[in-house]
Structure formats: structure tokens, C-alpha cells
Design brief:
By secondary structure, the protein is of the alpha+beta class. It folds into 2 domains: about 5-160, Jelly Rolls; about 170-270, Arc Repressor Mutant, subunit A (Orthogonal Bundle), CATH 1.10.10.60. Helices cover about 40% and strands about 20% of the residues. It has a 6-stranded antiparallel β-sheet with strand order 1-2-9-4-7-10. A 4-stranded antiparallel β-sheet has the order 3-8-5-6, with no helix packed on it. Strand 5 and strand 6 (about 50-55) form a beta hairpin. Helix 2 runs antiparallel to helix 3 (about 135-155) and helix 6 crosses helix 7. It is globular and about 60 Å long. The two termini are about 40 Å apart.
Length: about 270
Amino acid sequence: MEYKAKYITEDIKLSCYEDKFFKSDIMFDHHMLIWFISGETKIVQADATYLFKKGDIFLIPRNQLATIINYPKDGQPHKTVVMHLSTDRLREFYKTHKIVNTPYLSQKIYLFNNHPLLESCLASLIPYFEMKTLPENIASLKIMEAISVLRAVDKEIDNVLANFEEPGKIDLQSYMEKNFMFNLPLEKFGYLTGRSLTTFKRDFSKKFNTTPQRWLTQKRLELAHYQFIEKQKKPSDVCYEVGFENLSHFSFAFKKHFGYTPTELIEQRTSHK
């Protein structure tokens, strides 16, 4: 896989993947504003799956779990402009922009459908990627401009951008049952449920009577089995969507657990049609 990135600052980059695909399970530490130049991205969350393509503009709120799968499309690489809207930057912005709405952290991804104001704002960044350096004050102005445009486009976006709370301690069982397919370090799961790693492991053992890794593997394999039988999906799709990192390891673990490989299961299902 060939990956290229050009940075204006650490918060603004031009990202390019030229291979077949790139997959990663991610927890977003910052809000991310993304403009698609070419290619496609599938984003799988616990409650929804999104497909983004050329021209799309969307915002992913922070502290969200997602599986990201990037593809080239129509002979063009997967290419995006990505802007991080960090908590520090947003705190600075809202010092002079008071709001009256109650902040909350949305679980959804915001799609802006090729909005001309946002597209103009993000497209104006392209010439800067060819420069070796860019004064910090100019980069800061571009981010502030993007925040202002978002507020003009969506009158409720302050409820998301102005929420600076960190995750509090929440019900561990319901959260893990909803998000087990995301292959993240246990420290991240602990943070998102409001726990230290030690407390997370202790609470997990009390709730599930097993270790997190054993439980996660079993749940992912059971979901994969369901996807094969009920959704008739391909192994290459299911593998990445349920939290495995490569197809060979997925097939090995699947056979060890069920006694047959994904291919054997699909062949058996097909023969009974």
C-alpha cells in the first residue's frame, strides 16, 4: 500500500491512498471535517454504515468508534482533505461565540451534500499543500473559517462542537455489546466507558466472567457467522467489518471456533438452496 500525506499543519492534511484499500478501526480524538476529492470510503459504526464518494463533505464527531475502509475508485486514488477541529481550537473559538443551546455529543456522522460554502472553504486549501511552510496564523484562520461555515450551514452544530466533556462512567455491558466489533486497544475501551485500564478489566471480569480478549473474539466470530448465513456477505467483507485485521487470521480463528472455514460454510449454504 502506498500512502501519501501532505500537511499544512498537524490539523490540516491532504491524504492519498493509492492501493486497493486501507482499513482501520479508529476512535476519533477530534472532530474531523472531510472533503472527498476522489475514491470511496465505507464507515461502519455500531448503528449505521455510511458510504462516501467524490464530492461528499462530512463531519465525524470526536470519541466515535468506527471501522474505516478506504478504496480507490474509477482509476483514481482515495484522496481527501482532512481538517481536525481540536478541542483546544474550539475552546478558543467559543470564547468569543457564546451559545445558549445544551451541548451533547452526537453519535451520528453529519453529511453536508456538496454544500458550496463548505466546498469553497476546503477547496481553497489545495494550493497551500504545495508550499513547504505556512504561517500558523493563516492555518488558524482557515480552521476558524471552516467552523464559522459549519455554524452557518447547520444551526444545531454548536451542540456538538461546543461539547468539551470527557466520557463519564457508563454501563459497561451495554456499551461493549454495542461496540465489540471495533478492534481497539483495551485502554481505549476503558477511556470511552469512563474507566482506567485496571478498572475496565476488573469490571469486565465481574460482568462477563471472562477476559475481554476472549469475549471479544467470540462475539466477533458469532457476528461473522450471522453475516454469512443471514446477510450472505463475502469473507473479505465480513472479516474487516467484525474487527479482524487480516483474512487468514480470521479464517483460522473461525475454523477453530466453529469447526469449519467461512468458505466451507458458504459452500454448504449454497448447496442447500
